[in-house]
Amino acid sequence: MQHTVNTLRRALLASSLLVAGLACAAGYPERPLTLVAPYPAGGAADVLARILGKKLEEQLGQPVVVENKPGAGTAIGAAAVANAKPDGYTLLVSSNSTFTLNPALQPKLSYDPAKGFDAIGMVGSVALAVLVHPSVTATNVPQLVAAAKANPDKFVYGSFGNGTSSNFAGAMFNNATGLKMTHIPYKGSAPLMTDLIGGQIPVSFDTVVAAAPQLKAGKIKVLAVASAKRSSVMPDVPTVAEAGYPGFDMTAWLALVAPRGLPADVKARLEKALATLMASPDTQDKMKAAGFEPAYSAVPNWAGMVTADIARMKAIAERSQIKID
After folding, report:
1. How far apart are CA 81 and CA 38, in angstroms?
2. Summary mean pLDDT of the chain
3. Per CATH, which fold does 31-125+252-320 belong to?
4. CA pair distance 143, 321, nearest whole angstrom
């Protein structure tokens, strides 16, 4: 008799926990979400955050507020999210700058890129490009290399932050071409582009997202893209590899993550929402129009993927002599 009572109690407890879990899943989200972009407004991460934020609103039925938290090569925004309550109301959209490039260069960070986040999913990539001010006479990479070697004191390059994909692209370019252009880090893509347009710097490495409108307006020149393949946004622009440096490839991949420790039902809700919105032709069209290459995938082993990529980036950093300036 007692055995039967205990069995009944366990069954009732399991049933109540299941009902509670279903209620939680059905109730989430019950208030607005915050989507952190760890760059100033106007950069690629900000543009992507606003595209994804609007689409997440449609899927989740709650407002998604984009909050820019720039600084320290994305570390400030990343740490804020990693230390937030893991309840599904604070998310981060960022690139490999945050998750594998920063840790490849800095042994001590204010967040753990492998263990500090739960991945909601990969959302795509964006090509980086070699940009110059119109006053630079070079129209292709070989001409830029020749000009910089002839006038080394006149050529520096800007990036959108220490340890970012932009910094890596510039350092790899120096290493591949034999140049020694001094690196000038900025606090985001927007101030970097402002100084390039204004002629304060002659060369920069930035995303095609930031470059495309300025190229169209005739305010900058784009000599090459740093990815292995040409960008669909600039199909006529050759790759650095095509310009004479085989194997050159520095692409920024992008992911949506949350603080580590999300309840399973909340994580599942967010994963489903992201998968659905990424499958939408409208989302893909908006991303492509902005310069992104949409490519959704789940990340079942985030820690393993990040750890492996950090090791790969460390090897590139050592080979290209990339250091935090």
Report:
1. 10
2. 90
3. D-Maltodextrin-Binding Protein; domain 2 (3.40.190)
4. 24
The three-state secondary structure class of 183 is strand
CATH superfamily membership of 127-225: Periplasmic binding protein-like II (3.40.190.10)
**Max Cα distance, the chain (Å):** 94
pLDDT score, position 277: 98
The predicted structure's pLDDT at residue 12: 45
* Confidence at residue 26, expressed as pLDDT on a 0 to 100 scale: 59
Alpha helix locations (H) across the chain? 2-27, 44-60, 75-82, 96, 102-105, 141-150, 165-177, 189-198, 208-216, 264-279, 281-290, 302-320
For residue 7, what are its two tokens? 């069995």
Each domain of the chain, given as residue ranges in start order, spans 31-125+252-320, 127-225
Beta bridge partners of 126: 252, 292
Handedness of CA 281, 287, 288, 289 (dihedral sign): positive
Amino acid at 254: L
Q: Which residue is it, tokens 């060369």?
A: 203
DSSP, residue by residue, 110-151: SS-TTTSEEEEEEEEEEEEEEEE-TTS---SHHHHHHHHHH-
Angle formed by the axes of helices 264-279 and 44-60, nearest 10°: 110
Find, among 109, 29, 103, the residue nearest to 64 by Cα: 29
* Weakly modelled stretches of the chain, pLDDT under 70: 1-26, 325
Is residue 153 helix, strand or coil?
helix
Q: Report the relative pairing of strands 182-185 and 156-159 from DSSP bridges.
A: parallel
Would you state the pLDDT for residue 187? 86
Structure tokens at 67: 């909050």
Closest by CA position to 266, among listed 11, 31, 16, 12: 31
Q: How far apart are CA 186 and CA 163, in angstroms?
A: 11
CATH topology agreement for domains 31-125+252-320 and 127-225: yes
